[in-house]
Amino acid sequence: MLKLKKKGVFNVGELQAYAVAYGKPLGKKDYFTLIISPAFFLSLFSFLLVYYWWVSLIIFIVGLFYGLRMILPKTVKRNYEIRALQERNKFINNMTQILTDEEKTLVKALSQAKSRCAGELKNDLNVLEATLLSSDMDSVKEAFTELNTKYKEDIVFSQYAEQLETAVVEGKTNIDTFKDIKTYHNDLVRKTKEFHEIKNGHKKDMTQMLIIIVLFILAITFSFSFTTFFEAFARGITGWITSLLFFSMISLFLHKFVKLYFDDSIMEVSK
């Protein structure tokens, strides 16, 4: 798989490479949703507290940087990993189904299953197929080693690749083993999907909470009349301190949520 940085800033070229590995290039909609929208919300939120345009402008710029530095790369990484997992699962299911036909050789089965794949995995399978056709056993073993190394984070897929190598070396296929591994990988995909659905549910709850907070601020603003709020709170030292503390608390809370939302370490499996 493509090596995704855990820390550091991604440039546009790197992000595009991850985006197109199993999908489409990043477009204007992606930049707007993942960078501009969060920055606009934070700037609007700050403006409703102090009504200083220059403060909102500074917050907007900081929000743009945060979206570019945190939200966009983590979203690209999440989408890449989900699509890559789905392609590997599709390959395992197709390959296993084809191998149930005893008349199909492993190379023919690989060629047929590969044709139903897409993206980065299909390119890797093309290389593997070409190596298998070379009839050089040392090269074949090396090709499987490279494949296992590249996808070592997907333990179940790695086991499937090891079984394919065993079948090539020994010249016989244990279809029951392939079926068992297929079942394990299907379970992995299902649990991953359920895990992300739970997180997306929390994301919707967070969005609703932020909307309620904005409405609450507006309600307070106009319950005392805008003029009273503006002069007594937005332009007073007490209001500045309160707004700073409140905005800092919300910002830290959102940052913590972003980190937890994109933290998928609980789904990692180790040998």
From TrEMBL:
Where does the source fall among the domains of life?
Bacteria
Keywords in alphabetical order, please. Answer: Membrane, Transmembrane, Transmembrane helix
What parts of the sequence cross the membrane?
54-72, 209-230, 236-254
What is the protein name for this chain?
Answer: Uncharacterized protein
